[in-house]
Specification:
The structure is a homodimer. By secondary structure, chain A is α+β, with helices and mostly antiparallel strands. Chain A is built from three helices and four strands. The longest helix of chain A is centred in the last third of the chain and has 14 residues.
């Protein structure tokens, strides 16, 4: 099942994999596989949550959140995921970039939820 | 002008502001203001690029990239942006979360573009 809405994540620090992609035209098995991959990712050790949006013009951003860089590396190396990555490269995406980032601070609409993670900058 | 497609960013490290939001129904001045804010953000010191997607159900992810945490803090504190943030909180968003993260590694479809930024994990 794809992630729905805004992910509930613990206090930082944790890691984010920001996957920005441009889809080719047509489904070609994409939706079915994407749903399988969301479920598989969610079952991996260190998975914290994910958010995913795609617009009608085919640009998509999926951010998955993980306890550690190692958890992301393990997911990248997962055998079933590796096969899907190859299909993505060949068939589903005209282009994509994955950025691995350490989440350091979080704030939101209800700031009281996030006070513990805020820090002062100069 | 809103960002279009996948952002071209320099070699990491740099910072990302991941803004995930759920829109209320109706435009209520949102699109006009969003376009102004994209242009204003792009003119700020330390701005590196941005990616933005919203789906038909109103969930959106905008990731803006910055040279430093301080550049993000300066943009957050920008007077015109502050007013818009208040309107966003009151009118445009039922909920949102902003995560500030340090981008450490990047890879993409054409891995040769990103080799300099890859590191080995155990």
């Amino acid at each position: 099942m794809p992630p729905i809405g805004i992910a509930s994540t613990p206090e930082p620090p944790y890691y984010a994999a920001i996957f920005t992609s441009q889809r080719t035209d047509g489904d070609r098995g994409y939706e079915h596989t994407a749903q399988k991959m969301f479920a598989l990712a969610a079952s991996q050790p260190g998975f914290l949550g994910a958010e995913s949006v795609r617009s009608l013009d085919g640009l998509g951003i999926t951010v998955s959140y993980w306890e550690s860089e190692q958890a992301i590396a393990n997911w990248k190396a997962n055998a079933e995921h590796q096969l899907v990555q190859q299909t993505g490269k060949k068939i589903w995406y005209t282009d994509y970039v994955i950025r691995i980032a350490k989440v350091e601070r979080v704030y939101g609409k209800d700031n009281s939820k996030f006070q513990a993670s805020s820090v002062k900058l100069q």
